[in-house]
Amino acid sequence: MTNLGIVQQTITFAKQSGADEAEALLSRRRVLTVEVGNGEVETIKQAEDLGLAVRALVGRRIGLSYATDLGEASLRRAAHRAVEIARASDADEFVGFAEPSAIANIAGFDPEMEKHSTDEKIDRAFAIERAAKEYDKRIVVTRRITYAERESTEAIANTRGLAAEQHNNGWGGGGIVIARDGKEQEAGFGSDAKRRYVEFDPVKIGMEAAEKAVMLLGATNVTTQRASILLEPKMTGAFLGIIASLVSADNVQKGKSLLAGKIGKAVAASGVTIVDDGAFVGAPGMRAFDDEGVPSQRTVVIADGILQNYLHSTYTARKGNTRSTGNTARASFKTAPEAQPSNFLLVAGSESAETLRAGIARGLWVRNLMNLHTANPISGEFSFGANGLWIEEGKIVGPVRGVTISGNLTDLLINLRGIGNDVVWQGGMGLSVGAPSVVIEDVSIAGK
Questions:
Q1: What is the pLDDT of residues 120-142, one digit of tens each?
Q2: Strand (E) or helix (H) holding 69
Q3: Distance from the CA of 238 to the CA of which of 9, 65, 229, 294 falls in 20 to 30 A?
Q4: Contact (Cβ atoms closer than 8 angstroms) between residue 344 and residue 431
Q5: Those residues with Cβ within 8 angstroms of residue 412's Cβ, 6 or more apart along the chain or in another chain
Q6: Residue % of the chain over a pLDDT of 90
Q7: How does pLDDT run across 314-357, given as a tens digit for each residue?
Q8: Cα-Cα-Cα-Cα dihedral of 431, 153, 20, 62, to 10°?
Q9: Are 103 and 326 in contact (CB under 8 A)?
Q10: Would you give the DSSP letter of residue 125?
Q11: Please, what is the average pLDDT of the chain?
């Protein structure tokens, strides 16, 4: 039986068990991970995950169950359990399923994945390591050098007439290297994620990791002060990932976002535009539809500094008297869907990173951030460890480490004064962020 046949059969079973409405999602995922270090293969892991989730509505009550065996008896049991759970649940006026809509044909699967042997993929991991060591003789240790690929298939159907299927894959890699000069040593990290096999460049990853490690050799501290910071694209993306969680309608409606109640208000500097686009071509999270079958779309979140929209699932949309933005995701077929960003992008400006740097009188070019998980999404307060390069009158003075950048996320957005044209995507099939270099003024930098 086809994937669509399986999910359609399951919603029939749910109806036979007493559901007023039903939805079934079949998920197949395969992940290959190769990890090497210091010339040796350390691990090769291949994991496959297969299952089906069924949600049933009985009146305004909803139940979720799942099966890992796709045989008929197993699917009948899962459908029946979902109905029983619904009957035992509290009523909720906002529960329901997506309406069918036209879904664009998105080329999310690259057949090159199937044309290359495991040995070739192992060599791609080694290529990261070789590139790092060839970059500079001071690279002496490599750790967790990883090549990874992921393939997924989702099929979904509901009793409202929705039926859709998609097949996606993608590649990623990364690694940590150690540079040593005498008694001093520093670490650097490189990574990348692509949706096309030929675009994945292991040499670039290795060189990035090595450059960041070597750059910090001889680093000193700076005095505590307020100054500008220049975030390289991946560090802008790190901040953007935090902002992305703040515009999830789930977090907004639960009172877990400092951006709650601010639609139509200025939350960032003029010129700042942020969009979420699940169908963005080439982005790591590109997909045809979300985990409820709603077509991916482009949603303007912030336009010229003004908050325009939150990101919605069908549930949060009903609760907020609006429509789904195609932003439903599930951590697994075993879990309930939630509103989450897909491909979250800070729209590029017109200036190069070099031009932005040349305009800084005094500040820190941030090449690495630490402890990002400590940001408070309700108050906006944050305090991150950082290292990078100090800038005076637009010129690099030298490497800096051991400083702390702190403040409020709202102030960062308001004080953003320059946006580069060098967008870099990072993330994977789920949430990805795209961001350029940016300059933020008047930031607290704590040093010696």
A1: 999 999 999 999 999 999 999 99
A2: none
A3: 294
A4: yes
A5: 239, 440, 443
A6: 97
A7: 999 999 999 999 999 999 999 999 999 999 999 999 999 999 99
A8: -40
A9: no
A10: H
A11: 96
Alpha helical stretches, state H, 273-396: 314-319, 353-358
Percentage of the chain exceeding pLDDT 70: 100
Does residue 342 contact residue 314 with C-beta atoms inside 8 Å? no
C-alpha distance from residue 437 to each of 233, 366, 441 (Å) = 5, 10, 13
Q: Nearest to residue 248, comparing CAs of 318, 317, 304, 333? A: 317
* Cα 85 from chain centroid (whole Å): 32
Tell me the whole-structure pTM to 2 decimals. 0.95
Q: Which residue has the tokens 């009985």?
A: 58
Closest CA to 14 of 99, 75, 87: 75
- What is the average pLDDT across 188-212? 96
**Does pLDDT of 430 surpass 80?**
no
Extract the tokens encoding 11: 């919603």
Q: Which amino acid is at 373?
A: H
Q: Helix, strand, coil proportions of the chain in percent (round to 5)? A: 25, 40, 35
- Give the amino acid at 396: I
Q: How far is CA 443 from the centre of its chain?
A: 26
Q: How far apart are the first and last CA of the chain?
A: 67
DSSP state of 368: E
Give yes or no for a contact between 341 and 276, defined as CB atoms under 8 angstroms apart. yes
C-alpha atoms less than 13 angstroms from C-alpha of 387 in its C-beta half-sphere? 19
For each of the domains in the chain, give its residue range(s) and CATH number, in order of start. 3-215 (3.30.2290.10), 225-446 (no CATH)
Asked if 277 and 342 touch (Cβ cutoff 8 Å), the reply is yes
Give 3-14 pLDDT, tens digit per residue: 999 999 999 999
Tokens, residue 294: 């709603």
Q: 286 vs 45, 108, 145, 242, 280, CA distance in Å?
A: 25, 7, 25, 20, 6
Q: Which residue has the tokens 């729209």?
A: 347
